[in-house]
Amino acid sequence: MRILMICTNLVFKYKECGTKQVLDGMVELLTRHNDVIFLNAMSRKDTVCLTDNGIDAGNNYYFRQWAFREHYLALFTDLNIHFWRKIREVVKKQKIDLIFVTMTYGVTSASIMCRNIPLIYDSHGVMGDAADITFTTIGRLFKILNKVPFIRNIVELSLKGYISTIERLACNRATHIKAICNSDKKRFIEKYNVNEDKITVIPPFISPLELEKASVKKKSPEKNNMIKVVFHGSYAHPPNHGAFELILNYIAPEVGKRNGNIQFLLAGTDVPVFERENVKSLGFVRDIQTVLVNSDIAIVPLSEGEGVKTKIFDYMAAGLPIISTRKGIQAIEAENGIHAVILNAVDRKFIDAILDLADDGNKREKLGRNAFELARAKYSQESMQAKMNEMIAKVIKSQNPKNAQKPKVMT
């Protein structure tokens, strides 16, 4: 089967982050049994840097995405004439059986341009519920929004309305929706009145290689009795940024008052490099698994954000005991006290949990082992591959064979 996979926002193409990790996993599942054609976003600057032979080569096609200060304005994809032209060109050149659009933007226009070709909306969360995060990111690009409350309020209300409208249209126009977790599926049904049968839940997975490596790796023998507590993520992502601030300004100082043998390790894309008191910030680390294997505890002090947090899978694969807020570990089938320590908020109980695990090696080992076994049992590549194959077969079967034989492309 020939599948066209459309990615309208590729900031994560150049940086390691959770979104890229989820997308890479999706590509791996799709390419295993199908011929996949890619249509990716590029800024005008990126396009100019490529030679003519480098554009639209092989299975890779590109369209010019609007960008501002190196940030793709993917939320306007459905209004982008360059996207319309390119998707029409690709479908004419290639015999496409199925279209995947990753994330919300572009679903509606793609469904209109490629009528009668089944389209799966590959959601990475409920964008309408995450509009506050999108607005925070835009506020960093346009400083005037933070200086003039009147303008800020108008833009915020307009943006939230626009995102919800685009997502509602995407849910309506798509042949099928792939949700990343059960809570997202439930929210799509509640918020946009989507039929339950139209949604398939396929969460991220942990590759067999990662599980195999984690099962044989040993921690460094030079521990010096120092307990290392790790957190990583993209610094520019508002929920992660808030967690970094909580660690620096509350968690690390409070823990330091009661135990001087605990060090916090921070890492991730765009994370600043520094060292102070009981915190060591490593900046971007290409091999994050090395950091995790040499850590003792993982924390996820998130207070906002939608969908599955892929950092949880990193910690589970590394066999680390996890202390998380409910928001941080939402959508993961983990039980409090068995697979992780799960708390309502980052407060005194969160601090006590860190100190408790730091003092109890047996408890750390048990939680870490249980988390690893949960990853292997519930989030394996093979189980997700089976769900993917079943979903694609269902979507193709649901189409009218008469119309599916000759897809119609808008000219």
CATH superfamily of the largest domain: Glycogen Phosphorylase B
Question: How does the helix and strand content classify structurally?
Answer: alpha/beta
CATH topology label of the largest domain: Rossmann fold
Count every beta strand, where a strand is a DSSP E run of 2 or more residues.
Answer: 16
Average pLDDT for all residues: 84
CATH class of the largest domain: Alpha Beta
Annotated CATH architecture of the largest domain = 3-Layer(aba) Sandwich
The number of helices is 16
Q: Please state how the strands of the largest beta sheet are arranged side by side.
A: 3-2-1-6-7-8-9
Largest sheet: 7 strands, parallel
Strand residue percentage: 15-25%
Helical content (DSSP H or I, runs of 4+): 40-55%
The Rg value, from CA coordinates, equals: 22 Å
Judging from the principal axes of the Cα atoms, what is the shape? globular
Query: In the residues, how many domains can be counted?
Result: 2
Keywords:
16 helices, globular, 45% helix, alpha/beta, seven-stranded mixed sheet, Rossmann fold, seven-stranded parallel sheet, 411 residues, 17% strand, single chain, 2 domains, 16 strands
